[in-house]
Amino acid sequence: MEKGHDSCSMAASELYTKFARVWIPDAEEVWKSAELTKNYKHGDSTLHLTLEDGMDIEHKLDDKTKNLPHLRNPDILVGENDLTALSYLHEPAVLHNLKVRFTDSKLIYTYCGIVLVAINPYENLPIYGSDIINAYSGQNMGDMDPHIFAVAEEAYKQMARDERNQSIIVSGESGAGKTVSAKYAMRYFATVSGAATEANVEEKVLASNPIMEAIGNAKTTRNDNSSRFGKYIEIGFDKRYRIIGANMRTYLLEKSRVVFQADEERNYHIFYQLCASSHLPEFKNLKLGSADDFHCTNQGQNPIIDGVDDAKEMCTTRHAFSLLGINELNQRGLFQVLAAILHLGNVEIKDRDSDSSIIPPNNRHLTVFCELMGVTYQDMSHWLCHKKLKTAQETYIKPIPRLQASNARDALAKHIYAKVFNWIVDHVNKSLRATVKQHSFIGVLDIYGFETFEINSFEQFCINYANEKLQQQFNMHVFKLEQEEYLKEQIPWTLIDFYDNQPCINLIEAKMGVLDLLDEECKMPKGSDDSWAQKLYNTHLKTCSLFEKPRMSNKAFIIQHFADKVQYQCDGFLEKNKDTVNEEQINVLKASKLKLDLLVELFQDEEKATSPTGTAAGGRTRLSVKPKEIRPGASSKEHKKTVGCQFRNSLAMLMETLNATTPHYVRCIKPNDLKFPFTFDPKRAVQQLRACGVLETIRISAAGFPSRWTYQEFFSRYRVLMKQKDVLSDRRLTCRNVLEKLVQDQDKYQFGKTKIFFRAGQVAYLEKLRADKLRKACVRIQKTIRCWLVRKKYLRKKHAAITIQRYTRGHQARCLVKYMRQTLAAITIQKFQRMCVQRKLYLQKQAAALVMQTILRAYMARQKYQGLLRNHKAVFIQKHVRGWLARQRYKRSLRAIVYLQCCIRRMKAKKELKKLKIEARSVEHFKKLNVGMENKIMQLQRKLDEQAKDNRVTSERLNCLETSHAVESEKLKVEVSKLKGIEEEAKNNANRVTSLLEELEKLRKELTTTQKEKKTIEDWATKYRDEMEKMVAELKEQNGLLKTEKDDLNRMIKEQSQQMTEKMARALAEETQQLESDLNEERSRYQNLLTEHLRLEERYDDLKEEITLSVSVPKPGHRRTDSTHSSNGSECTYNSEFAESEESSRHGEDVTRGMDTSLTLKLQKRVTELEQEKSSLRNELENKEEQFQRARVRDDEEHRKSRGAELEYESLKRQELDSENKKLKHDLTAMRQSLLGNAGAGAGAPGSPPYKVLMDQLNSSCEELEVRKEEVLILRSQLVSQKEAMQHKDEKETMTEPVHYVEDVHKMKDSGAITQAYLGLKETNRSPRFLRKPLEANELLNRLRSPTADFHRLNEDGELWLVYEGLKETNRLLEGQMQQQRRSYDNEVEVLRGELQSVKEENNRQQQLLAQNLQLPPEARIEASLQHEITRLTNENLDLMEQLEKQDKTIRKLKKQLKVFSKKIGEMGAGQGETISPGQMVEETVRPVNIPRREKDFQGMLEYKKEDELKLVKNLILELKPRGVAVNLIPGLPAYILFMCLRHADYVNDDQKVRTLLTSTINSIKKILKKRGDDFETVSFWLSNTCRFLHCLKQYSGDESFMKHNTPKQNDHCLSNFDLAEYRQVLSDLAIQIYQQLIKCMENILQPMIVSGMLEHETIQGVSGVKPTGLRKRTSSIADEGTYTLESILRQLSAFHSTMCQHGTDPELIKQVVKQQFYIIGAVTLNNLLLRKDMCSWSKGMQIRYNVSQLEEWLRDKSLMLCGAKETLEPLIQAAQLLQVKKKTDEDAEAICSMCNSLSTSQIVKVLNLYTPVNEFEERVSVTFIRTIQTRLRDRCETPQLLMDTKIIYPVTFPFNPSSLALETIQIPGSLNLAFLTRV
């Protein structure tokens, strides 16, 4: 690889700029990362760099080449799944990428183009379980993270798709993990393909691994389980790509390890296993001991491997031997031979002299060896120390020295072990050999990698020779793939210069090559290693540049291999190539006396035996190049072939095989020599990378166009580099235009048909441009955001400053106001204080002045009072005197005035009198006088009245005054008397004053004494009060403490009670949850057992089918199809009536005799276990049901005892009705006898006596039936009350009783049917008089049907038959009317009971209201009565309105029906009018008996004939199209039809018919599901119908728990004769199987959509960034078949939901299906997320959360949010949140631990390890953070499983869902072709 090739992609100045990162060589770390601190300019000789540790250095460029150091890839490309996705492809980039993935992400697998690089972690990883296998199965190789399973899946898929054999080539150093990788590849094939035959071939293939590891693996210094041989295992497949066998070829067993081991190494494991098991009884005869006791096992000084138990491994090896068919005898023989080898190694040989040796006699180990091998001690000891020399004439026996004898002993041991090894390989191949023809195979080559040690010998030479051949094949294959890719994309192809190691191969294998000269030297009599070395020097030293001679040695040579130079030491080459063994020793072993077939097989025909290396062991079944067969005549020549020649031939055969297959490469890398887990040694790794060809793959890829993008990926990734005008509708043209602008050199890229090809480094340049553009955009965004943030901060500060100023100014103003207030307050205080002082002075002065004024004024007042008093008394005297004088004077004046007035008035009156007398004499005057007289009189009268009134008032006043005066005078008198009394008391008091003063003195003395006593008492009281207060304080304190303690105790009690309550609630919840989980586990276990049972049944059917096909020879032209196959297990489960089932079962019995006995026993054992488990579960269920039934029976018995008298009365009434019925039948018998007695010609005429008798009897029968009908109605009314209590019991009691019904005679074709019907009627009557009726009925039938003259005479006109028909119709009509009347009466009774109950309730309510009203006052009572009346009227109005609406609806409905019926009647009338012939009309008119018919009352039953059962099943199940039924008919119609047929079979009490119908139904459903089990619509349809059929069996079973929601009509339709509880359980199991098949079918449809729709498709465009992809993404196994989106998933879910709804699936069952759907979506999505590093990014987390929200919206639209489906997505939601949350600090770790409670620790750590930044702006998760997460989650109790189990099916339940559909209303459409069914 040319250094600095990436710098040629563009100008160095554009790439080697400041801050650019490069790789520089380093002695310790191979390559070191550094960063440029200065831009590079053309011509500079040094680069200024800074290492990662901060050291500044100057890197000098090579003066000659001027090659710049390798550039480092961007961080977003570090850790890629495919090394070819790296932009810069060179050694340091590859090494760094592997190191990051291995040490940081703990990922051991990485793609490098077509190669899978596997690094040995030296630690067990949980990535090889069955869940991982299932996750990789069916996936494209580039879609998942790198894994050995992905390579195995690719090989398996290409084998199936291309019909071409495949090979997986696993290579690497010892300890790199080759064997483990090959083992896991074979385990994958065994798991995903399964075996095609009854023998478990896949188990045998895997069982061969422990055997081969025991005999071919050993501990070395580099590996504890190193394969010391190469092997190529061909796994054979049939046409259905199932494993049928295997074949193993081995290469170059390291036989020298048998007798020699280096320090710290061991021999082959089998020897140590034998020594560890020597204490077992079966190994006592081997006389073994510890491994330290044997020379062959103690040379390494360390026989123990840490963590390995050799005794336990021995058990595993023996079990594997048994599994592969090696019997105990051969096993003992093998262990005996191996033990003999150990004892042979301990045989001590001593020198006899310098040229001879001897074995001391009675050597213990040789004795044991001879005993174990069955040879004589003398012969073996002799030939161990001698050899036979043959010449042309004579044979010599020559002794050999001790060294040669020891070598001969070791050669014999190696030869025996090689024979044992070949024998085991041969028998393993025989056991794995296919019994049928092999169609294709996948080969797994586990071969040693390139080896170089300090001392390299013949083994290393052969190993490196094989690696040279494999490397050549690898280079050619890589070159071929590159060429095919370019040609496919129509890119101009230019030859790439890659390393061709053909010259090295020619040096080894060509004529006169190393191997040729070695074989030639071996043929020389005195050939030696030295002479062979000289020949090599002479031949190749000057002619071949790849061959060199060491400077300091003449016994070694150097070959330049493709990986490195290797120096080989010539010592031992000839001996190892010859691989000779003393023939006489072999002859001694052949002469063994032991009767062991093993020894005979090991050493017989030594010449014909295969080589010790085992190149042709086992043979091959189907190879493109077959090995050459060995001719018998050439045995001696073949025996003389050298090891090198044999190895070259086998290697040539291997290369031919590999070239005929499609190879897949796995390169195993050993990360360190100390076997430390996840420790990466760069030196060792880079050596192996160079040796295994990984770097050569990189170089070939880098020489062309390593980076490849699809046009859409390029557009999505580099859309940011385009302008809007550059974006066109044509993506290809858009990419072309953009690339021409971005990259000027057009040689740096090429446009293919679907991809753009780039030279190395171009993607990095485009990434740099993209990063620069994004960086500029980020800077602009940052600038704007920072401006906005700073402005926001400035505005915040401004607002804060203004606020501070405002508050400061406010504070200052408040301080000023406070000061002013304080000043004003001080002044006010001063004012008031001064005022107080002045006022006090003023008041003192005022008081003094007032005192003085008071005294003065009092004196002056007294003086003035004395003067006034004197004046008053004088005035009083003057007043009275002057008053008396004035009154005297007034009286005299008044008398004089009155006298004068009287004189004057008298004089005037006389004058007036004269005038009046004159005027009175004239009339006119008289009239004038009278004018107004009346008014005057009235006025005078009024005045008089007023005066009288005034007088009364005045008199009243006077009276009042008199009264008051009298009262006043009385008061004054009383006061005068009081004053007199007071005066007398005053005189008396004056006398008492003296005595009072004396008493006062006494009282004062007593007061003084009392005060002293009071003071004493007060002191005592004060002291007492203080003491009491102190005591009260103490008591209060104690009381407070007690209250505190009480509160604490109450609080503690409350807390404890709350805690106990919470604890109990928690315990109850946990117990409930535990019970629910136990129930779900039990359901799941039971349903898994059902699934296993179904699988075994299918396996049994398949095996029987295959054996049938292999044993029986079909007739020409006839081939058995799927439709004739028997259903799953139906022959062994049910007693079917199908002829083909019987035939198949009989045929199966004949064929089963040839089946494999072991498989049959396994199947029988498994079936027995399943049956026992099933029976135990059923017993538990039956016990529970029996307990419930017992309790119910006790209740029924108690109720029945209480109603015994009524039942006796009813039985009497029933007997009376039976007697009346017998009487009617007796009349019918008499009528028949009369008819039979008259056999005249006109006996049957209308006017004949028989006819009259018949009509009379008919009329009387009708009358009697009417009467009996009324009696029956009365009886039924009495039985109504007993119905519910006795229904269940009566059904059980009457199950064996005959059914009361009348059979249609005209439908019965034979006498047996009529006899049976008549017998039933006779038994119903229960009368001994009619025991002979069946015979009479037979005679009657014979006479009626016999073609004799009697019949013609009896019924010439058919009148008798018509009469019988009429009687029969009448009976049927009456019976139907009676049943209708009974039902109507029952309904009326129920209605009346309801009305009575409502009346009682209303009466109680009225009484309550009345009682309440009586307690109210009268006004409130009236108001309440009115309110109550209003409420009552309102309720009645509402009820009437509802009734009116119902009647309106009924009227409208009846009108519509009337229109329809009238139309039908019109059509029928018209049709009948056209078709009726005149003869028919005449016959209709003269018909003598015309009994009117009423509409038939159907009972919801369907009658069918037994021979129509096959037709019923065929039309209703096998040939029914679900789509038409779901769209056009009612849901569950087939289930209803089947149940109605079952009801009729139960009605007629036909046990066989019931069982055959149920068995046929179950078998047919199984058959249709087996035939069309992959059709979701079919499975959903039959799941719905099976559940509906099961619900019908429950609803009409008669069990009260299932009859709660039934109507009375539905209760009448309950099954009456059979208890089908067992069949209900069988149907429930069938429903579970159908449900599981539905889930599998749904999973198969959803599986291809989930990953594409949930993960890969960008629902939110532009969020997810597309990263560069590697070669694996371009070479997927399957071409793109169309991308699924989230809309596709939602559409499919909607289709599932609508289909189930159309089929009438129960809503609860739909919820369970949806929950299972969402679990599958979440589990598959999360599993792929955990296995895909490219999906673990922040943007993908956003996409997932959006997709989950869309799923939740779908649930919300379908009203399914509460079905538990959302909870199943919780792990996926948390994983998406984990991708988006911050992952840096300890707080982030705590948040992640609390958030991700639905994810396991391994899943959380896996997501964090896989987290990959899509852009440079994202950061990886640090290792420290991941360790913090692991530390915090250490205490979690959880399973270590990484992936979710997508095969989990939640246990299903079928909640009872009764149907409201009336069976009698169901109509059977004609499209079902069920015309043979008759409604009953």
Could you walk me through the main structural features you see in this protein, from its secondary elements to its overall organization?
This protein is α+β, with helices and mostly antiparallel strands and 1880 residues long. The protein has a seven-stranded mixed beta sheet with strand order 6-7-21-8-17-11-12, sandwiched between helices. It has a five-stranded antiparallel beta sheet with strand order 4-3-2-1-5. β11 (230-237) and β12 form a beta hairpin.
Measured distance between first and last alpha carbons: 93 Å
The biggest beta sheet is recorded as: 7 strands, mixed
- Decide which structural class fits the backbone: alpha+beta
User: Rg to the nearest angstrom?
Assistant: 62 Å
User: What's the shape?
Assistant: elongated
Output the number of helix runs. 55
Can you give the helix content as a percent range?
A: 55-70%
Beta fraction: 5-15%
Mean pLDDT over the residues: 77
Number of strands: 26
The side-by-side strand order for the widest beta sheet comes to 6-7-21-8-17-11-12
Low-confidence stretches: 1-10, 605-639, 1112-1161, 1238-1246, 1280-1357, 1470-1496, 1672-1681
